[in-house]
Design goal:
By secondary structure, the protein is an alpha/beta fold. It contains eleven helices and twelve strands. Helix 5 (138-153) packs across helix 6 and helix 9 runs antiparallel to helix 10. The protein is globular, with a radius of gyration of 19 Å. Bound molecules: nicotinamide-adenine-dinucleotide, 3-isopropylmalic acid and manganese (II) ion (MN). Manganese (II) ion is lined by residues 220, 224.
């Protein structure tokens, strides 16, 4: 299995180093090849997603990514994050799965990933007005809705579809299509919730959710909230899947410039993303078993050797040592 490894920026390389160390311990034939991406790639080539990197990702069985972004690019025309948006679009990974697990909480955000505001027309008018537009085609909503309902069937059979249908026409389309799809999944319960209330319910009663199905921007925000109420960004993993391989596997967190270079980033989110890659992205039975073993080893290390974001003192490499020891 060929894995394109994209370390990226900030703590990205720190947590991908941890993932590479752990993956090499597993009794699997994994070929890990690193490629420049994000700010590092802008410095090297002027492009956050160099042609060679894109080609390598397309040819790989899975893409394992750290994070991109750095304050030095805040005012630049070309920014690291643009590479990530392009890569997601090129691989058409429309389903972003973001699990959040905690005390009495087991929810999954199913976020549409290649549409909406991130991919709409944008520009500047002569009078200085700047605009971003949000568009959804019915087929785009339908495929993510189907994915959400399919996944709910393997869970507690409950879907909360989140939108802003009291205001936005895209949300009215979203609701209409989700209801049409729901008719094919009579065994799954569907509720609709407005996005502002969903933010509140996630804070007050996160245990009430099973699958949260939502569009790109809402899913971005709500998945950070879900992470926040279940232990923080140091723990939150994600899988971005299309209809074919490769998927992209990356933590929910970013490049964390405030702690980058200190060696203290919690690599659990990255290691759990690697486990999701083994479970969903490669999909051979031997790999699924190793995914479960890796998840269990991360849980053990979180108990015995917690990093500083969880109130402990373990460095990134000490935590990684603990995972390897547990494996
Ligand atoms: P962030 O997720 O990088 O950090 C938010 C807070 O969480 C910070 O205090 C950080 O120290 C903490 N944190 C995050 N991950 C952690 C970890 N593994 N261990 C311990 N603490 C952790 O969000 P931000 O600061 O808003 O964004 C920084 C940069 O990252 C921006 O350039 C943004 O665009 C980018 N970003 C990239 C991705 C991605 O590549 N997928 C995701 C989110 C943000
Ligand atoms: C995430 C990030 C990205 C997003 C950014 C960096 C483009 O915040 O993966 O959650 O908004 O999708
Ligand atoms: Mn985000």
């Amino acid at each position: 299995m060929r894995i394109a490894l994209l370390p990226g920026d900030g703590i990205g390389p720190e947590v991908t180093t941890a993932a590479a160390r752990v993956l090499r311990e597993l009794p699997l034939e994994l070929e890990l090849e690193e490629h420049p991406f994000g700010g590092a790639a802008i410095h090297a080539t002027g492009d956050p997603l160099p042609r060679e990197t894109l080609a390598a990702c397309k040819a790989a069985d899975a893409v394992l990514m750290g994070a991109v972004g750095a304050p030095e690019f805040d005012r630049s025309e070309v920014r690291p994050e643009q590479g990530l948006i392009r890569l997601r679009g090129e691989l058409d990974v429309y389903a972003n799965l973001r699990p959040a697990l905690g005390d009495g909480v087991d929810l999954l955000v199913v976020r549409e990933l290649v549409g909406g505001l991130y991919y709409g027309e944008r520009g500047v008018r002569e009078d200085g007005t700047v605009y971003d537009t949000m568009e959804y085609r019915p087929e785009q909503v339908e495929r993510i809705a189907r994915r959400g309902f399919e996944i709910a069937r393997g869970r507690r059979r409950h879907v909360t579809s989140v939108d802003k249908a009291n205001i936005l026409d895209t949300s009215r389309l979203w609701r209409e299509v989700v209801e049409r799809v729901a008719a094919d999944y009579a065994d799954v319960e569907l509720e609709h919730m407005l996005v502002d209330n969903c933010g509140l319910q996630l804070v007050l009663a996160p245990g009430r959710f099973d699958v949260i199905l939502t569009e790109n921007t809402f899913g971005d925000i709500l998945s950070d909230v879900a992470a926040g109420v279940t232990g923080g960004l140091g723990l939150a993993a994600s899988a971005s899947l299309g209809d074919e391989r490769p998927g992209i596997f990356e933590p929910v967190h970013g490049s964390a410039p405030d702690i980058a270079g200190k060696g203290i980033a919690n690599p659990a989110a990255m290691l759990r993303s690697a486990a999701l890659m083994l479970a969903y992205g490669l999909g051979e039975p031997g790999e699924a078993a190793e995914a479960a073993r890796l998840e269990a080893a991360v849980d053990v290390a979180l108990e015995t050797t917690p990093p500083s974001d969880l109130g402990g003192s373990a460095t990134t490499s000490e935590f990684t040592d603990a995972v390897i020891a547990s494996l």
